[in-house]
Amino acid sequence: MQSQDVAQHPSPTLSASLEQAEAALVEHYPRLVRIAYLVLPPSLGRGRRVLTAHALTQRALPRGRSSTTVIPAQSKGADAGYSYVRLQVLRTALEAGLPLTPRAWPKRSQLPPLLPQVWGLRLFPRSGGADELVLDQRLSALSGPARAAYVLRGLEKLPDPDVRKVLSAVGVDDPTAALREADEIDAQYALLESAEFDPCSLQARPTDLRRRRQHTKAALAAAAALAVCGALFALPGDGWGPDGAAAPPYARNAAAEAALDPGRLTRVSSTAWRTATRRDFSVWPARGALADDSALLRRALAVWARPGGSVSVAATPGTQSGGPAGPPQLLYAGDVDNARVVILYDGLRVARYAEAKDGTGRAALDFARADGATGAEASAVVLGRSDGNVRYLVAPWVRKAAERDLAKPGAGSMALTVTKGATSPLASPATRTSACTSWNVLQVTDASGTRLLSDLGELLPARLSTGRPGKTREVSGSEALRTWAPFACSLADARGLGVRSVNAWKYASQPLPDRSGSGTWVCTRAETWRGEGSRVFAQFGTPGGTYGAVAAKAADVPACGPRDPHVLAGVLWKSAGGHWYLLAAGSKNTTSITATGGVTASATGRLLEARGRQGARAELKGTLTNGRTINGLG
Fold first, then answer.
1. ∠ at Cα 548 (547, 550), nearest 5°?
2. Residue 26, SS3?
3. Which phi and psi angles does 318 have, rounded to 5°?
4. How do residues 92-129 score in pLDDT, each as one tens digit?
5. pLDDT digits (tens, 9 = 90+) for 383-431
6. What per-residue string of b and e applies to 102-126 under the rule 16 or more CB within 10 Å gives b?
7. Any bridge partners for residue 464, and if so which?
8. Which SS3 state, helix, strand or coil, does residue 93 take?
9. Helix axes 144-154, 29-39, angle to 10 degrees
10. 428 or 576, which is more confident?
């Protein structure tokens, strides 16, 4: 139990000067703000916690120009300046959680911060996954000292004896009890480093615009009323008449109310897809064990219409996050790992609402564009991600689902269990931060064939294809899988961009100098849901190479796409004999290539090979059969 007055009695073993503390504060500012954010009581709300965490950290320096402060030593050799400012941050963060009492003046940390201030915007950290939501719920149930103990253990990696010293120094009466209470939560310390708990990497949303406008109008009306009331004293009789034909102060909107009514959700028959002319999200039936849970559905609809400060909202680029215009269609409601999940569709967007199973105070809301999605693009939606895995809800026409490593074409696929549309978990490359050695994708099979979909960190997986632009096909045969394999890891560059599909086109093979075999040129193009923002990569693979190399890349260009199915790219390559060469290749209709700059050369046809030197840079131009000139990609 923490005392109402936080006393200062650190162990006199180290001293910190003002200069040391200031240097430590500047160097470790993001970490100190994260500590404050985690220790502050969640009851403040995410927006105020962010501002308060920054305010407490900025006030952590010693008072006075020549201050020297004594702090407790720790077994790990943290510098004295950092130890001091961390103590101050912890002390004031714990003070901020103390209840206000009528007989004592409030401490400065218990009041809303004067600085920093943000007007007209709500700031909160970026959203995490279901595990982060669960951890935040459990931390909120702990006392302030127990949260501090958990953070010192997990984020600061302090042993328990040092945790006791620090807690004692900031005035906690019983540090041992705080450690015991912290033991009630699983040691998921790696989650403390996630973006969910980073108050320095923020999302901005407007405040309640309607309420703000109402407050402004109310203030103006109050001022006008004062003036009118003064004038009315001089009028005879009863003054002015009633409001006449004016509407009440708040008029209900029938369409908006219908969109929030769980009973009016659109539910499609489980057999509608069998006779429909199109296979898209509009013919998906409502699935999941909680599809009839009106309370859950009401919360999901209300959060979609009016997300509060405790809601993490994320949307793919170019996707609006406003409420539905009318009752949306229910696709799924059920338990997924440690969360309750609801998936809705309004004809243009797919929305996923997720809340922790053990509470409804925190929620996550994700959006993805789905306009025009049919067939493969409407075959799966991400249900949730946890522990490096992803679960999908697949379309009712999907007969089988499997997991396949795109980087290993000969490895075969591993069947997934599909229970009422929900797949068993499979490894997801979307959140991987380590070196890429594999790229697992979802393989779905329906009556028309097999398709591959890749998780790129968003709600809808991207469809993978192969072949010449305008004549693409599914990645289903051995040749198509071998084309993709060396370039699978390049999909990491398309994560989080709102990608709709990625096509890999093997446009040329080139004999290598010094009898080194034959190289392969592949152009991959990532198309987005919003149209703009496409990415194009020309990649070069050599015999025996596990991975291809990116030779050139560009954004928002028509090359390598249906509008302009041509591409030209080059690369500097070193042979086994130690010689450097400029190699370049164009697509099928290229009749000549010219290189200028660091390497000067020309060739008839669509392949160029010229001696070069390490680090040389060349500009490429090609001529097509129709006489048109194209530039090298990038």
1. 135
2. helix
3. 85, 10
4. 999 888 876 665 566 666 666 665 666 667 676 776 67
5. 999 888 999 999 999 999 999 999 998 888 999 999 999 999 999 998 7
6. eeeeeeebeeebeeeeeeeebbbbe
7. 452, 502
8. helix
9. 140
10. 428
**Is there a contact between 514 and 578 (Cβ–Cβ < 8 Å)?**
no
Q: What is the mean pLDDT of residues 153-178?
A: 92
What's the burial of 2, exposed, middle or buried (CB within 10 Å: 0-12/13-18/19+)? buried
**Could you tell me where the beta strands, DSSP code E, fall in 376-494?**
380-386, 389-394, 400-405, 413-415, 418-419, 422-423, 426-427, 440-446, 449-454, 462-466, 473-474
Closest alpha carbon to 95 in 47, 17, 148? 148
How many Cα neighbours within 13 Å face the side chain of 155? 24
Q: What is the pTM of this model?
A: 0.61
Treating both helix axes as pointing N-terminal to C-terminal, what angle do 160-169 and 144-154 enclose, rounded to 10 degrees? 140
User: Per mean pLDDT, which range of 128-137, 144-153, 573-582 is the poorest?
Assistant: 128-137
Q: With helix as H, strand as E and coil as C, how does 343-370 read?
A: EEECCCEEEEEEEECCCCCCEEEEEEEC
Output the CA angle 130-132-138, nearest 5 degrees. 105
Average pLDDT, the chain: 84
CA distances from 323 to 108, 258, 283, 328 (A): 39, 12, 22, 10
Q: Taking residues 260-267, report their average pLDDT.
A: 90
Q: Residue 116 phi/psi, 5° resolution?
A: -75, 160
Q: Which pair of tokens denotes residue 529?
A: 């849901």
Alpha carbons 210 and 227: distance in angstroms, whole number: 26
Which pLDDT does position 114 carry in this prediction?
Answer: 65
What are the phi and psi torsion angles at 35 (to 5°)?
-60, -50
What is the pLDDT averaged over residues 371-390?
A: 92
The answer to whether the CB of 512 falls within 8 A of the CB of 573 is yes
CA 609 to chain CA centroid, Å, is 43
Supply 489's token pair. 């890891």
pLDDT tens-digit readout, 48-69: 888 888 989 988 887 765 455 5
Distance CA 166, CA 558 (A): 60
Q: What is residue 357's predicted lDDT score, i.e. its pLDDT?
A: 86
Mean pLDDT across 491-517 = 91
Dig out the tokens for 558 from the structure.
């028509």
C-alpha to C-alpha distances, 135 to 150, 201, 430, nearest whole angstrom: 11, 19, 21
Q: Of how many residues is the chain composed?
A: 634
DSSP letter for each residue of 122-141: EEEEPP--HHHHHHHHHHHT
